[in-house]
Amino acid sequence: MEDRERAQLYKGTFEEAAAGYDHPALHYFAASAEAMADRVVLTGDERILDVAAGTGHTAVPFARRVPRGKVTAIDISPAMLAIAKAKAIAAGLSNVDLREMNMLDLEFPDRCFDVAVCAYGIFFVEDMLGLLHGIAAKVKPGGPIIVSTFTETSFAPLAGLLVEQLARYGVPVAPMASKRVASPRQCQALFAQAGLTQIDSITKPLGYHLPSAEDWWALVMGAAFRGLVARLPNEQVEVFRREHLAAVSRLATCDGIWLEVSAILTRGTVKSD
What we know:
By secondary structure, the protein is an alpha/beta fold. Helix content is 39%, strand content 19%. The protein has 10 helices and 9 strands. It has helices at 3-17, 28-38, 59-65, 78-90, 128-137, 158-168, 184-193, 213-221, 226-229, 234-249, and strands at 47-51, 70-75, 96-100, 115-119, 144-150, 197-205, 208-210, 257-259, 262-269. The strands form 2 sheets. A 7-stranded mixed beta sheet has the order 3-2-1-4-5-9-6, with helices on both faces. Helix 8 (213-221) crosses helix 10. It is globular.
């Protein structure tokens, strides 16, 4: 499947998932966004490009740090952007420019941004190198790019259990592109291939206990996992849900159900002329 065709499938998934994207079960998004913003030294007047912005988890903390600048946040999902707009208004931010746009077709002049960020978006395409090249082209020489991805162990064993049970329902799941950027070494190699310099990565533990199996299901349906469940026939979804949550509940301790999440935050710099 070509990346542009895949993008349309993801658009449908995230249009449906948008309402649940800010559920407390997914609060690792907000936590890692703050960590990303802390990794960039800003003077307050930068123009920042936020690629695959979702509901504004990353745009908001960056916008707070550039009161004289602007964050241009793009996403393929209008429903996600509507929530991001409401979030920016609630935060009293007037320097967030939200645009519906495919990250494969960035409609900006080259070298017009001081900084670019992409939170958990780069692995939604097979051609991650091409995407990173495209993002880098929009950043001025000497400007930083920071990308977040998940570690190999993130969401284990819950995601593995989901995939195993889907397979028993006749829904095979192909290896995920996210596994190709699931270590600092892999991320740094991608940045180097894209011609970026001053590359470094940190791994940020973000795990926490979910109160119940229902919270895990809220995460599944509020994130990209929803697209996997959508492959089930409608009449099987509720049966699958009950079976899956029964299996997840068996993993509970007195503290709840552990959600293993760690982010790799990789930073590089666009080469100076």
